Amino acid sequence: MSSKINASGQDSSDQRTVRTPQNENKLSGSIVLFVSIMALFFGAIYSLSFLTLGNPWPMAACLVLFALAFWIPQTIWGRSDSAGEH
Prior knowledge:
Layout: H1 27-47, H2 57-76
């Protein structure tokens, strides 16, 4: 499938490029995103090793890191606003 289309759906070189799932992200960008989000997730799990009944801060750090590990990909880099694109 071509990534260039015009209003009638025919290939054309003078039209703008349409973002499709095949050309949306580069591999290097996806790898960097995956590694950074996994670092947040594993940091959240690692912070639980310091949890004691007298020190609640590791749990607070765990909750914040865990929430960021899900919130960042879904809202900032996510496709949550693309329901009507295709």
